[in-house]
Amino acid sequence: MLAFVLLSWLVFEALDLIDFEGVVTRVRGIDPVWAAVAIFALLVVDVLLPVPSTPLIVLAGTALGLPLGLALAVIGSLGSSAAGYALGRFARPWLVRKVVTIDELTEMRRWGRQFGPWFFGVARGIPMMAETVSVSAGVSRVSFRTFMLFTLTGTVPICAAYVFAGSQAETVEEIVMICAAGLLLTVGLFYLLRRFVKAAP
């Protein structure tokens, strides 16, 4: 996915298909209300649709600045987690299996046994894992209060880092590099933790 995004960006720029100059200025000129509504909605539906949350959080910083962008990113991310939990807790089994597989639920239980509730916070920063963890928490009937509290502990620092970086970005290239670096770091963390979990008795 990362390679596809970077390659598309290079091709568009090389063929002059998109004018990247001034994009950041135009993003910052968007009506803050509409930008907030769009970003919030996309973050919440991330549990059901393949919406890339990392670029959205970075763009929240670019479009809205640090204080408002951070508040929006945190609330939107928590909304996505709450929606995933509700889906796992109350939805019909056939619908839950459309979002997560039995194998994924089994693996999430292993992670939960290894890290305890701190796992909810760690997973929030790993792409494509946060949604699976949210649904599995609902399926396992973990206390909603505990789930949201530990999810919050992982959400705030991750969002703060991305939003701050986005607020400082001045070009599309910088935004793309921030997203790429974040994706590489979190995917690397995921594989390290996965090896640790598999090696555990």
Automatic annotation (TrEMBL):
It is a multi-pass membrane protein. It is found in: Cell membrane. Residues 51-168 form the VTT domain. The keyword Transmembrane applies. The chain crosses the membrane at residues 32-49, 56-78, 147-169, 175-193. It holds the Pfam family VTT_dom. Keywords: Cell membrane, Membrane, Transmembrane, Transmembrane helix. Belongs to the DedA family. This is VTT domain-containing protein. It comes from Lentzea roselyniae.
